[in-house]
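To: structure subgroup
Subject: Chain for Friday's discussion

All,

I'm putting the inputs and outputs inline so they're searchable in the archive.
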Amino acid sequence: MDLHGLRQFLVVARREHLSGAAEELRVAQPSLSRTVARLEAELGVPLFDRAGRLRLNESGRRFRDHLERALGELDAGQRAAVEAAGEGFGRVRLASETFLTVTGALAAFKHTHPDTDVELYQMPADEMARALHARTVDWCVASQPVPGEGLEGVHLHDEPVYLAVPPGHRLASLASVTVPQLRDEPFVISRVGHWQRRLLDRLFAAHNLTPRIVCEGDEPAATAVLVSAGLGLTLIPAMALASTAHTPIAWIAIDDPASRRTLTLYRATGARLSTAAQLMGTVLTTWPWAEAAERYQGRPARRP
């Protein structure tokens, strides 16, 4: 089997769209189609269902999972060989649901190891297990549990999550609110799958309620700006309050013990980590995560 063709198959499997994969790979679509057909002929089974939209079938999914792990080990072997040759610490690849969460730790790492290559990947939690098993990333920082076998998790930080409201809102003068008080309020929130959305749905479901969502997106950091514009309310973790210092919003405590975020660092069990990845793991697990949140402890829940 052609290694280049195998990597191309993974792009097609991820996109489930031949022309989109061809555009990403910068190859002609007929050539990519022949590559996939050749691979299926070698395996003796179809990997995609082609009735209507291209869909990865069960054989394709199983082959993809094994192939990702195999190529991940190959890439890890290449990195290990380079490191053994004495050409630096290697590189480290970190995934996170939001980069705002890891900015402080990354700055500390680069200050101590300025010549080490760091690759960052933003991805939802439900993609992290596959990325770790495929060795496309070394570490993942998640704000919600990452399901899957063969993963190790280290607790990093636990913090309260507040309600953000526009200035002048009827709730802005309150020190705390309950979830039932929010039943008719519009929310500006991240898409399904992101931790903020899952937390919002969970808080409302505990009271047999459904949140009224007027905007959902992929930029959690942008929601505070939309809130300040009066479009709705949102959830904001304590660690992110500093980033809203110049945004006219008010933050209010939510009177519910479940209104919290837990950060966890994940890796694949048994994965061989480069020296750079090991150093990154040390920085992430020893970084004073609570400091940013603690700056707001004891302060009024709302900001003028």
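Points worth raising on Friday:
Confidence is low (pLDDT under 50) at residues 296-304.
Residues 89-156+262-294 form a domain with the D-Maltodextrin-Binding Protein; domain 2 fold (CATH 3.40.190.10).

D.
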